[in-house]
Amino acid sequence: MQFTIRHQTTYRYAGPIHESYTVCHLQPFSDVEQYCTQFELSSVPRAKVFDYNDRFGNRVHHFSVVPEHSLLAISTRSTVVTARTENTAQASADASRRALLADAKLVSLYDFLQPSPLIEFGPDLSALSGDIGEPSEDLLAWYIHAGTYIKENFEYVKRATNVRTTVAESVRLRAGVCQDFAHVLIALCRDNAIPARYVSGYIFSGQADSVLGAEASHAWCEAYLPPLGWVGYDPTNAKLVNDFFVKIAVGRDYRDVSPVRGVYKGLAQSTMSVNVAMDELYDAAREIELEALHEQQQQQQQ
After folding, report:
1. Residue 41 · residue 26 · CB < 8 Å
2. Using an 8 Å Cβ cutoff, are 183 and 198 in contact?
3. H/E segment holding residue 206
4. What kind of fold does domain 89-242 have according to CATH?
5. What is the mean pLDDT of each run of 10 residues along the chain (302 residues)?
6. Helix, strand or coil, per DSSP, at residue 131
7. What is the spatial distance between Cα 70 and Cα 58, in angstroms, rounded to a whole number?
8. Residue 287: what pLDDT?
9. What pLDDT score does 238 carry?
10. Helix (H) and strand (E) counts for the chain?
11. Regarding beta strands 155-156 and 175-176, do their DSSP bridges make them parallel or antiparallel, or are they unpaired?
12. Which residues pair with 95 in a beta bridge?
């Protein structure tokens, strides 16, 4: 599938501020499952934008605005093609503990097996893990079961949590948003010695009103399950990641990949608003292919 994504973050300040420094994780990932064909980032006030790759492979942009200003707007436009395979379920039996322990890449995934600032281990997580049950030999089946359990037993409530909410707090509340649900599933995986990482991105709702998190940046979990590799699961909507998801960045937790963060000098308080629009692009080649197939089927029927 092919998407165009427009993302705008606007900060308004009660008074003039100066020397604002901003870091953005907003450029979609490019790998074997998706490719970012176009990306543009601009700001008001205008600033020279620099970029680099961080240690997780994310493309990071940063800029500074030195003169006084009372508004900062960051706008991006991306075009992304997704092409994920759909054979995950068929390979489920191969994703075993034995395969994980024998995988040569496991030693390099230390960061994704340990606690992180927002994902800690403790009695609340242990109790939840006990309710869900220990992983069976089929790690993919347990992974899906754990994610489904979160969907069915946690309530999606906006403003029940914030960007600093930890896993322990989310588990006690049994409520939160996509960020919290992703953190809980990641914590469950790591607590059971399965490497897992946080993914920020977007989900396309299409015509489905029941898709949660489609109106803004979204988040989900990726677990490393050889021979499948990194397998994405969205506990907010209880589904394996497919072509309707666009990955932006990966990290240990939200703090590694927050879409926009920064600092400034000044005493003025700020308010933030975020607007996201994700549209599927018309695929002319695919339309022609479908028309040809339809004509072929009609001819066979005749």
Report:
1. yes
2. yes
3. none
4. C8orf32 fold (3.10.620)
5. 94 94 97 94 96 97 96 96 68 81 95 97 96 92 97 94 95 96 98 97 74 75 95 96 95 97 92 90 48 55 53
6. helix
7. 30
8. 47
9. 95
10. 7, 14
11. parallel
12. none
Torsion of CA 85, 89, 94, 100, to 10 degrees: 70
User: What is the Rg, in whole angstroms, of the alpha carbon atoms belonging to the chain?
Assistant: 21
The token pair at 279 is: 């549209």
C-alpha to C-alpha distance for 100 and 96, rounded to whole angstroms: 6
A 10 A CB-CB count for 73 gives: 14
* Dihedral sign of CA atoms 109, 57, 198, 133 in order: negative
- 269 DSSP assignment: -
In 3-state terms, what secondary structure has residue 292?
helix
CA angle at residue 119 from 117 to 121, to 5 degrees?
115
Enclosing H/E stretch for 93: none
Cα distance between residue 42 and residue 48, in whole Å:
9
Domain ranges of the chain: 2-82+257-285, 89-242
Q: Directed axis angle between helix 123-132 and helix 139-153, to 10°? A: 110
Per-residue model confidence (pLDDT) at position 268: 83
Per-position DSSP letters for 142-192, written without gaps between them: HHHHHHHHHHHHSEE-TTSS-TT--HHHHHHHTEE-HHHHHHHHHHHHHHT
Alpha-carbon distance of 96 to 107, in angstroms, equals 17
Q: Is 256 helix (H, G, I), strand (E, B) or coil?
A: helix
| pLDDT value for 205 | 79
> 2-82+257-285 maps to which CATH number?
2.60.40.2250
Listed in sequence order, the residues at least 6 apart from 128 whose beta carbon sits closer than 8 Å to its beta carbon are 171, 184, 188
Nearest to 203 by CA among 189, 215, 185, 221: 215
pLDDT in tens, 16-30: 999 999 999 999 999
